[in-house]
Amino acid sequence: MCYKAFLFIFFKRFLRILRMKYPNTEIKNITDTYFGFEVEDPYRWLEDDMSTETAAWVEAQNTVTFSYLNKIPFRKNIKNRLEKLWNYEKISAPFKEGNYTYFYKNNGLQNQSVIYRTDSNGNEELFLDPNTFSKDGTVSLGDLSFSKDGSILAYSISEGGSDWRKIVILNTETKTIVEDTIIDVKFSQISWYKNEGFFYSSYDKPNGSELSAKTDQHKVYYHKLGTPQQQDQLIYGGSPNQKHRYIYAGVTQDDKYLIIAPKISTTGNKLFIKDLTKPNSDFITILNHTDSNTNIIDNKDNTLYLVTNLNAPNKRLVKVNTSNPTPEFWEDVIPETKNVLSVATAGKYFIAEYMVDAISNVKQYNYNGELIREITLPGVGSAAGFGCKKDEIIDYFVFTNYNTPSNIYKLNLDTGATELYWKPSIEFNSNAYESKQVFYTSKDGTKVPMIITHKKGLELNGKNPTILYGYGGFNISLNPAFSIAMAVWMEQGGIYAVPNLRGGGEYGKAWHDAGTKMQKQNVFDDFIAAAEYLIANQYTSSEYLALRGGSNGGLLVGAVITQRPDLAKVALPAVGVLDMLRYHTFTAGAGWAYDYGTAEDSEKMYKYLKAYSPIHNVKQTAYPATLITTADHDDRVVPAHSFKFAAELQNKQQGENPILIRIETNAGHGAGTPVSKTIEQYADIFGFTLYNMGLSVSE
């Protein structure tokens, strides 16, 4: 396959677009008042995901969208190539539980990866196949958590991509379900106490739609094996003074302490511990504020080891005795440096991964904070997955970058020796591609890194189809990682560019905060500047540029095209946060206020949000060809955001470019999406993008 100029006559395509009729979206204005300012919401009715009107609108929009997509002559060619490249065996690093070693494996095109295990003699067997959970692969496996001796497994499942989960309890020897399924679980870990039971978190089921109604009081429960869920003990979160939007519970490896980490927003947590060796002990306060991200990663008897960004924006590892655990008694084990730190426990050591301009640098320390060695990595990219139990000396990690599929490496913790454990057999020649990191200047003079990946020898003539992908929020870092879909894109001559925008975590808390609340415009400016860099340096031009992002990245794309509709030919906002005045009224959206602020905070915050809120800034002008993607079971960023944005754009589009919305049914925010659906989505996205750039793909 290769790119070639379309043979379609522009005039015919123009006439075809003129003939496209969007479904009628009725205007039913509702007026909200913020600090004396009235704001009309013409499509509020689309927020009701339980109504027949909304269901009819979804069906009508999908009919128009798929009618358009089905006419793209090379869409099937893209799907065929995606299926062919996707069809290789993928496995995970092995992990030991009880008498077995477990690992995930996908034979290539299985909708969900399957769990296998080997015994002490190396005999392999299939242990758990999530593809049997449902015929269409839309019931997916979430977390696995084994009891301390490995005899019992508790695993969560998601139905249709929802964040609401169920927990199934399995005897690992007989592979039979041993008791009733735990229901109505959300945003939860599963953490075992010995072999007796486990802690989990959830909300009371909301009134109205469980896919969109607000949930804001998380609660921690303890489930004792052999008892019904109705008897589960409420541990934390039931009283008004313990009300938090998220509460995470975990037990230390030695079963001595229960750790409780309550959060008001997605950033910052309080921290408490409870001595489980004393049945009626009170919670001990470590932090009673949410000014930092602080997590306990291990303990030795009464000494706790914590990773924190309190007074250390790039994070440090500290230790403290439980008798006096508050910050004034913390002692540095691995001090803060100029690079962002993350720490894992592996055997008797700490593995410290530093981000150096979004690239991994890994070091091994002992528990006294003494450097043992730097871990040699196989190249420039991302290393992840470190961590093993205290009695193990072999650890595993995954290495990848934008043109290297994930390889698994084996690390001997005693010697530091690394060796390749598994390499995928994929029909993709990594050596034919190159990645280059550049630093460009944003609007306010800030230097921002971006990695640009493409075929070697690509001519910089301004005509290369380019996907510029961004996120820029929630302290999330975009590190180099291989994507099968983007490999297909680059295989055909496309460029894939990923900037590390402010709002992310690549340079610590200061970088994150520089893209939040009243500084959120920095993120959009960084993304616009990335596009302008690519255009100025002849990688591409506006006619061959597509903007893509999901969730907070969907907000990014929506804000940029309403501010700069001339910047790109194609816009691909996925599951975006697009109504910035009302996002916090749905599900757990209020927990995003650290990054966004809310329209109720102050008149100044309301005005700032309204000034960039994509839904509120659509004007009568020409917009890029836009394919909005969402899912009917997305209860993280409810699809009403995308519905209302699509309606506004369709109503006000003045140019020839199509405005379409693709609504996946029986799917959620993204996690657990079946491989078959993922391939179909990318075939549609790439087909739409190239078609509107005037390009094609041959067989």
UniProtKB/TrEMBL annotation:
Known SUPFAM superfamilies for this protein?
Answer: alpha/beta-Hydrolases, Peptidase/esterase 'gauge' domain
List each copy of the Peptidase S9A N-terminal domain by range: 26-421
Any idea where this protein resides?
Periplasm
Top-level division of the source organism's lineage: Bacteria
Which EC number(s) does the record attach to this protein?
A: 3.4.21.26
> Which GO CC terms are listed, alphabetically?
cytosol; periplasmic space
Question: Can you supply a Gene Ontology BP term from the record?
Answer: proteolysis
Catalytic activity reads: Hydrolysis of Pro-|-Xaa >> Ala-|-Xaa in oligopeptides
Q: Peptidase S9 prolyl oligopeptidase catalytic domain: which residues?
A: 481-694
Keywords, comma-separated and alphabetical = Hydrolase, Periplasm, Protease, Serine protease, Signal
Q: Which GO terms describe its molecular function?
A: oligopeptidase activity; serine-type endopeptidase activity
Q: What is its main location?
A: periplasm
| PROSITE patterns per UniProt | PRO_ENDOPEP_SER (PS00708)
> Which enzyme class?
hydrolase
Q: Which Pfam families match?
A: Peptidase_S9, Peptidase_S9_N
The UniProt similarity line reads: Belongs to the peptidase S9A family.
Say what the protein does.
Cleaves peptide bonds on the C-terminal side of prolyl residues within peptides that are up to approximately 30 amino acids long. Has an absolute requirement for an X-Pro bond in the trans configuration immediately preceding the Pro-Y scissible bond.
Name of the protein described by the UniProt record: prolyl oligopeptidase
- Protein's organism: Neotamlana sedimentorum
